[in-house]
């Protein structure tokens, strides 16, 4: 399928999909808390840490270490574990640092987990548009950092895969095929970029997990997921993969026609937590976006986590103090009516 064909199937939730999501919500409520026991790691309340970081020359490893400490992460939790960091490398362009997670953020996250005693930290990505994983690394600038830090990289688009039951059931995807390297990790970190998106409204830690879906099964640019619906697929992948940590590089983000053609925004923040849903909701508020108006976040609320400000304990900076309204495009349906009220 061509990219233009994929576009036609990715213009937000269809009416049928929206009805299905609503029905799923009602069904889960009817069975008396099934969602809480089957999809949540713990109680719906979540903690999210926000730190200011003026640039990539800051001590980012210290920022991540402080964030992990605020989230209650201890060496005992991390010691000896295999950590897989999944950065957002959607479409590498040399010199366009607002498209992908900055290589120094990848380094900082790896250093922070190794300092807590991780047995190993590896980096894995299945880029959506480029089949040559090593060209992606070179153009993004990440190859040099990985070589200097002796961090292994795994192309999640290829290699062994295994079938896992779809824990979400929001789409018609059926069982999901996941990379063996992902399944071998004890801890999965979704390391995302803070960006708007012309199909999903925003692309943050939850949407970033499209990149763990192997291209050998789901195609380029993950066309099978586009046909199944971007929002339902986001929900199914997150319900099944269940990332342990979500970290968002918002030092320089992207607004307007994201995730590739938008403009850089110096938001100057790092947002992180254990719940990808709560982290994404908090990042939305930093961007001046109401998470309740982002369809897949609204669908995730109460089933995969919480987006409600009253149920998220903010650590570090408050979203209001670091808010930087990202430009939204009225001619992009997924970005209409997203603005968070003052």
Automatic annotation (TrEMBL):
InterPro entries: DUF362 (IPR007160), TAT_signal (IPR006311), TAT_signal_bac_arc (IPR019546). GO terms for cellular component: periplasmic space. It comes from Solidesulfovibrio magneticus (strain ATCC 700980 / DSM 13731 / RS-1) (Desulfovibrio magneticus). NCBIfam families: TAT_signal_seq (TIGR01409). This is DUF362 domain-containing protein. It is found in: Periplasm. Residues 83-285 form the DUF362 domain. The keyword Cytoplasm does not apply. The keyword Membrane applies. The chain crosses the membrane at residues 21-40. Keywords: Iron, Iron-sulfur, Membrane, Metal-binding, Transmembrane, Transmembrane helix. Heterodimer of a large and a small subunit. One of its GO terms (molecular function) is iron-sulfur cluster binding.
């Amino acid at each position: 399928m061509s990219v233009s064909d994929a576009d036609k199937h990715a213009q937000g939730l269809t009416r049928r999909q929206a009805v299905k999501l609503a029905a799923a919500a009602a069904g889960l409520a009817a069975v008396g808390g099934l969602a809480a026991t089957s999809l949540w790691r713990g109680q719906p309340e979540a903690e999210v840490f926000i730190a200011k970081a003026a640039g990539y020359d800051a001590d980012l490893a210290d920022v991540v270490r402080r964030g992990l400490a605020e989230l209650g992460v201890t060496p005992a939790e991390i010691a000896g574990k295999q950590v897989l960091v999944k950065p957002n490398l959607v479409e590498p362009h040399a010199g366009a640092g607002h498209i992908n997670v900055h290589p120094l953020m990848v380094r900082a996250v790896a250093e922070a987990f190794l300092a807590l005693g991780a047995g190993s930290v590896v980096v894995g990505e299945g880029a959506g548009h480029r089949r040559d994983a090593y060209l992606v690394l070179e153009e993004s600038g990440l190859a040099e950092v990985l070589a200097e830090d002796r961090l292994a990289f795994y192309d999640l688009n290829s290699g062994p895969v295994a079938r896992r039951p779809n824990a979400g059931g929001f789409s018609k995807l059926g069982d999901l095929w996941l990379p063996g390297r992902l399944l071998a990790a004890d801890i999965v970190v979704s390391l995302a970029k803070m960006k708007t998106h012309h199909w999903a409204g925003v692309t943050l830690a939850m949407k970033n997990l499209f990149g763990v879906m192997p291209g050998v099964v789901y195609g380029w640019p993950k066309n099978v997921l586009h046909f199944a619906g971007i929002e339902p697929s986001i929900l199914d992948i997150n319900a099944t993969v269940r990332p342990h940590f979500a970290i968002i590089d918002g030092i320089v983000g992207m607004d307007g026609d994201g995730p590739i053609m938008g403009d850089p925004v110096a938001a100057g923040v790092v947002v992180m937590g254990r719940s990808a849903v709560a982290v994404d909701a908090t990042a939305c508020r930093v961007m001046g976006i109401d998470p309740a108006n982002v369809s897949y976040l609204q669908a995730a609320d109460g089933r995969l986590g919480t987006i409600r400000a009253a149920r998220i304990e903010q650590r570090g900076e408050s979203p209001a103090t670091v808010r930087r309204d990202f430009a939204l495009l009225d001619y992009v349906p997924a970005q209409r009516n997203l603005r968070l009220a003052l």
